[in-house]
Amino acid sequence: MQTLLPQELLNVWEQGTVWPAAVRALKLLALAFPKRSLQELEKMCIGERDSLLLMLREETFGSHLVCLAVCRDCNERMEVAFSVQDILVDPAIKTGEVLSIAVSGYEVWYRLVCGQDLIAIAGIEDPTKARSILLDRCILAVRYNNENISEYHPVDELPIDVLNAVVDGMEQADPQADVQISLTCSSCGQQWQASFDIVSFFWSEIDNWAHRILRDVHTLARAYGWSESDILEMSPLRRQIYLEMASE
Ligand SMILES: [Zn+2]
Predict the structure, then answer these.
(1) Which residues contact 147 (CB under 8 A, 6 or more apart)?
(2) DSSP state, 176?
(3) CA of 224 to the centre of ligand 1 (A)
(4) In sequence order, what are the beta bridge partners of 78?
């Protein structure tokens, strides 16, 4: 993994303002893992993709994560802190591995959802339609009473309990794709689970960082006449010391 330079991070942030989340994830990984092809990164299952993003986040902003949560019961706002290591899960299976289930006389072979699938459904607002497209892409073959029926439209024709079993199988095989954080309200004691999505979390941090660093560039350029690239190439420590002196 390569450490992202400030200029690279700024460029991907600027271009990424109009990208869907799945493209942002892909472009960040493409920068950090230049030896891996775009196709290889796109085909990674979501858990593998997210574990790499967690490691990249650790490399970029450190391992300590702080989220804000609001109690469902009493609306108390609270900070939840954990580390990257706390939420990294050992992969149960490898990207590309074929899974299967047998339900109600059906045998279904399928693969896990990958980043390319999420890019394909980006912009589809109807969750039922998006789910159907994902299943259609991930179901590889279907047999009913030992007859191969995969040449038909399996997702449209398969019973709902079979499709639900496929979704359950996907979730169990790729736990890193849906990280759940256990929360307890310090005010009323209410306990619940919340999803943690590394793509939106990391991107919002990058967004905050970009606005902060552009403000620093503005301050230093105005004080000293340096160029943006000169200022971005400085270490954070040196930039901070110049900022303090510029405000004296
Ligand atoms: Zn509460």
Answers:
(1) none
(2) G
(3) 50
(4) 69
